[in-house]
């Protein structure tokens, strides 16, 4: 029995009813679009087409090509997501800061299935195993789903916790910052590493929990970016930064950030806590009625009353587009000022 392809027969392998390779038909179809569209469409290879921003204001598009054969029908769904330069769709690979690539169309389809399975009560492990086998995801794509895609219930509960980032709306006294969780994502943004806007409207990266070699040069800039972002808000009376004392240079790093925040936010009381259990300590503060937590850790988020999307604010201030925008993909709206 023939093995079924994970997301349909690739166009390069399919034959039309007349025996002509679908590759030829697709290329001809692309050429027709080039003529009709006056150069709007371009085709660089069999598996991808593109619309340049200069020729179209579209941010997303769906194209369905259906090929019939005598024995079977091949349906090719092509989904579009805006990347940093061009709107790509098809079997186009997204740029990644690792050797493993993100193949857009299989990640999109896996996202829908994964979210559905989670919402039907499957555990994260069970659902991830199913879609990994079904769509032949590599380890980087698998990690992306694990970090960025959640059950519908979790996503909506988190969205309700996100505070409006407007001084006239937010009146909370205490901001608790999950230090390395936030810092490493800012470092990733500065280093132009992969970052993603996840389905709970929080920006995350797929890196590990430690600074990489050569990244300490980004720390001073990271502190200043965080201070600039918080300075724009100015509705907290106190900020507590919580860090892991088991991380190398943690005392030096956390003191450096608190100094910058104290210098820039003179009316705010800034302090830090170094502990061997930073998550538990953050959760203790998160349970306080007057607190808002800046973290993208899902466990901390579930235990918190309110969340400040600090990494998302930083991304917007830096005018960087995430590699993938899951809320846009799933039709979700992120909280904004009324």
Automatic annotation (TrEMBL):
<dbReference type="InterPro" id="IPR041652">
    <property type="entry name" value="DUF5616"/>
</dbReference>
<dbReference type="Pfam" id="PF18481">
    <property type="entry name" value="DUF5616"/>
</dbReference>
<dbReference type="Pfam" id="PF04256">
    <property type="entry name" value="DUF434"/>
</dbReference>
<protein>
    <submittedName>
        <fullName>DUF434 domain-containing protein</fullName>
    </submittedName>
</protein>
<feature type="domain" description="DUF5616">
    <location>
        <begin position="170"/>
        <end position="311"/>
    </location>
</feature>
<dbReference type="InterPro" id="IPR007368">
    <property type="entry name" value="DUF434"/>
</dbReference>
<feature type="domain" description="DUF434">
    <location>
        <begin position="109"/>
        <end position="161"/>
    </location>
</feature>
């Amino acid at each position: 029995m023939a093995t079924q392809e994970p997301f349909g027969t690739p166009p390069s392998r399919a034959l039309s009813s007349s025996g002509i390779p679908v590759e030829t038909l697709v290329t001809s179809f692309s050429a027709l679009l080039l003529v009709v569209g006056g150069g709007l469409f371009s085709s660089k290879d069999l598996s991808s087409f593109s619309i340049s921003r200069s020729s179209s204001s579209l941010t997303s598009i769906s194209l369905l090509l259906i090929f019939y054969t005598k024995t079977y029908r091949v349906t090719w769904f092509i989904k579009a997501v805006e990347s940093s330069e061009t709107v790509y769709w098809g079997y186009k690979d997204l740029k990644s800061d690792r050797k493993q690539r993100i193949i857009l169309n299989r990640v999109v389809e896996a996202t829908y299935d994964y979210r559905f399975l989670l919402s039907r009560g499957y555990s994260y492990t069970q659902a991830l195993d199913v879609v990994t086998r079904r769509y032949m995801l590599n380890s980087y794509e698998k990690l992306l789903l694990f970090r960025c895609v959640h059950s519908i219930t979790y996503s909506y509960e988190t969205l309700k916790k996100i505070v409006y980032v407007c001084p006239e709306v937010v009146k909370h006294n205490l901001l608790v910052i999950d230090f390395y969780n936030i810092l490493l994502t800012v470092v990733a943004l500065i280093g132009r590493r992969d970052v993603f806007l996840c389905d709970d409207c929080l920006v995350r990266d797929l890196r590990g929990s430690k600074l990489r070699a050569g990244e300490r040069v980004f720390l001073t800039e990271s502190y200043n970016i965080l201070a600039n972002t918080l300075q724009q808000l100015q509705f907290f009376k106190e900020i507590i930064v919580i860090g892991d004392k088991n991380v190398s240079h943690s005392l030096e790093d956390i003191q450096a950030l608190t100094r910058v925040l104290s210098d820039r936010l003179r009316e705010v009381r800034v302090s830090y806590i170094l502990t061997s259990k930073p998550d538990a300590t953050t959760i203790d503060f998160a349970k306080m009625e007057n607190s808002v937590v800046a973290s993208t850790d899902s466990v901390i988020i579930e235990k918190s009353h309110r969340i400040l999307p600090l990494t998302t604010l930083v991304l917007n201030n830096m005018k960087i587009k995430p590699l993938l925008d899951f809320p846009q993909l799933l039709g979700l709206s992120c909280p904004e000022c009324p």
